[in-house]
Design goal:
The protein is of the alpha+beta class and about 270 residues long. It contains nine helices and ten strands.
């Protein structure tokens, strides 16, 4: 009886390991799930339908922002898996959950509907800037490449605001997004009862990620930390937020003083 039970346990264990190995093979080899593979610079794009001619233009914008990261390594190979009929994004959705996209290892997997001409990915009626989404998820690939699997999320105990906030920081370089005061203005002027914040191009960021982004922007642009120094620093999210709020209040007061001074000067010259 014990021998029979042991045999059954071994069979179950073998089956589980076999299924896990099969899933890992499919995840690491997207070509098994796609009809086409297109090479562009250091990126392999996996797709079922013909690749939109505008996609490389969007990809160039994402790669340009990615190069500004201190973690960037030129010879890092990246795989981008499009959501155009393959079962691969569906598999990732089952394993990781629904999202506009997922970035892990050296893989970026889109789950929303891509519109290259409009430069957005749509999911559940919301639009996320496509180039910035690609840059965000590719930044996660840089993090995995730099720190290794066990020192990256979800295995490492890294606060979400430092992990996701850095990806947003690298990706959000459009228009006046480099201006922290304007970013905080937008945050404070938005409706705190809704989960998203609408940006200047009518795409969105989640309120959670937007908050993370501003904290990282304050740490790197105002405090002049490197990303590694941010990871190593023991200050809590609340502590950094308090510091940023104080800095923001000072900047707003300074800007208001400048505005009043400019008005007085204009009146005097008139």
């Amino acid at each position: 009886m014990k021998r029979k039970a042991t045999n059954w346990l071994l069979r179950i264990l073998f089956s589980v390991l076999f299924i896990a190995a099969l899933l890992l093979g499919i995840i690491l080899k997207p070509i098994l799930s796609y009809a086409n593979k297109t090479h562009y610079k250091n990126v392999a794009v996996f797709h079922n339908e013909p690749l939109n001619t505008q996609f490389t233009k969007v990809l160039d914008q994402a790669l340009s922002d990615l190069k500004k990261s201190e973690l960037y390594r030129q010879n890092l190979h990246l795989d981008i898996c499009l959501n155009d009929g393959s079962n691969y994004p569906k598999l990732i959705k089952v394993l990781r959950g629904p999202a506009f996209a997922w970035g892990f290892y050296n893989k970026v997997v889109l789950q929303g509907s891509m519109n290259c001409e409009g430069n957005y990915v749509e999911l559940n009626g919301y639009k996320w800037n496509l180039a910035q989404l690609l840059a965000h998820e590719m930044t996660h690939c840089l993090q995995f490449d730099c720190y290794g699997l066990l020192n990256s999320k979800p295995f490492a105990d890294i606060p979400n605001w430092k992990w996701e906030g850095y990806a947003e920081y690298v990706a959000r370089k459009k228009g006046d997004q480099n201006d922290l005061v304007k970013n905080l203005d937008r945050l404070h002027q938005s409706d705190s009862n809704i989960w998203e914040i609408t940006l200047e191009d009518s795409t969105i960021s989640s309120r959670e990620y937007y908050n993370y982004w501003t904290l990282v922007q304050y740490s790197l642009d105002i405090k002049h930390w490197t990303y590694q120094q941010l990871l190593d620093n023991a200050s809590s999210e609340d502590k950094i937020r308090e510091e940023m709020a104080s800095w923001y209040a000072d900047k707003k007061a300074e800007n208001e003083d400048k505005r009043i001074c400019a008005q007085k000067t204009m009146r005097a010259t008139n």
